[in-house]
Amino acid sequence: MTDDATGPMRCGMVAIVGKPNVGKSTLLNALVGQKISITSRKAQTTRHRITGIRTVGTSQFVFVDTPGFQTRHSSALNRSLNKAVTGVLGDVDLVLFVVEAGNFTLGDAKVLALLKPGIPAVLIANKLDTVHRRGDIAPWLRDMQQRHEFAEFVPMSAKNPKDVERLFAICEKYLPEQPWWYGEDELTDRSEKFLASEIVREKLFRLTGEELPYTSTVVIEQFEEEPSPKHGRFVKIAGTIVVERDSHKAMIIGERGERLKRIGTEARNELEKLMGAKVFLQLWVKVRSGWADDEARVKSFGYE
After folding, report:
1. Is 157 inside a domain boundary?
2. Residue 232 in marked binding region
3. Distance (Å, whole) CA 291 – CA 198
4. Is 179 part of any known ligand binding site?
5. Is 8 annotated as belonging to a binding site?
6. What is the domain-level CATH number for residue 243?
7. 181 within domain boundaries
8. Is the domain of 152 the same as that of 17?
9. Which CATH number goes with the domain that contains 103?
10. Which segments carry the region annotation G2 (predicted)?
11. Which has more pLDDT, 39 or 112?
12. Residue 33 is assigned to a ligand binding site
């Protein structure tokens, strides 16, 4: 990444949108240069607006990763997620519309219909590395241009650093000339407490596979920092994994508590790296049936 600091100061908001599981969070993490948004093969991993910040040269990019727009069933949780998507789209300078290269489904079409006129949109044809015949992409791109007047097309893979660097150069010209909103080294506007709940949730989904319904969530009850002559920084975190059924609770705890222990260990290791601190993490599992359909409870668990 070249940090050539010439030219006017620019700063603007860039929304990353698309249906679930097209690689939005992977793209955000690649653009920010550090993991701030959780990823898993399970659809529905991102549930909040997550802002990632990257300053390159004289330009500051404020990326907003949105939950994948939900079209399958309407619960209080899904309504909250969809509100997060539509709320973002009205006040950004640029939209990155992420689809899998060569693919366009009804789910993609529903997200595309949300794009606001007058806000430039760039088509990100992601996962290009999985397309076997590159010749198939040209007719697909022509078809996409007929669906929406995209400002640019960027076939890429979020896992390729050269593609990510090229994307910065493409997006830069859409940012307004104005002072930066954040410090040069800031990476996210989310608190460490929020990141702790997200990382526990990621390990939860990764280690339970497809069996666990996505309505499981994580609530951080305690987040306290204590001075430590030995470690420099010592953070005590206590969290509750909330599920809807006793069978889900048993699945998470595992035989003799092994699975819950592994979720805790993997989350703690990652948090220690992310926070540069010694972390003490305690996790419990509680059953709260029907929480995803209860507006008040969805709000109390931190969803907008």
Report:
1. yes
2. no
3. 18
4. no
5. no
6. 3.30.300.20
7. no
8. yes
9. 3.40.50.300
10. 44-48
11. 112
12. no
Q: Are residues 102 and 19 in the same domain?
A: yes
- Is 240 annotated to bind a ligand? Reply is no
- What lies within 8 Å, CB to CB, of 250 at 6+ separation is none
Distance, in Å, from the CA atom of 246 to the CA atom of 287, rounded to the nearest integer, reads: 6
Are 271 and 232 in contact by the 8 Å Cβ rule? The answer is no
Q: Is 37 annotated as a binding residue?
A: no
Q: What is the pLDDT of residue 216?
A: 74
23 is in an annotated binding site: yes
To the nearest 10°, the Cα dihedral for 136, 142, 144, 145? 160
- 133 lies in the same domain as 202: no
Mean pLDDT over the full length of the chain: 78
The mean pLDDT value for 127-155 works out to 86
Asked whether residue 69 is marked as a ligand-binding residue, the answer is yes
Top-confidence range, 9-13, 32-36, 204-208, 224-228: 9-13
Which DSSP state fits 291? G
Is 21 annotated as ligand-binding?
yes
168 and 197 in a single domain? The answer is no
The band of 248, judged by pLDDT with boundaries at 50, 70 and 90, is confident
Residue 43 confidence (pLDDT) above 50: no
**Domain containing 236: what range?**
192-300
25 is in an annotated binding site: yes
Same-domain status, 131 and 269: no
The structural domain count of the chain equals 2
Is 128 annotated to bind ligand?
Answer: yes
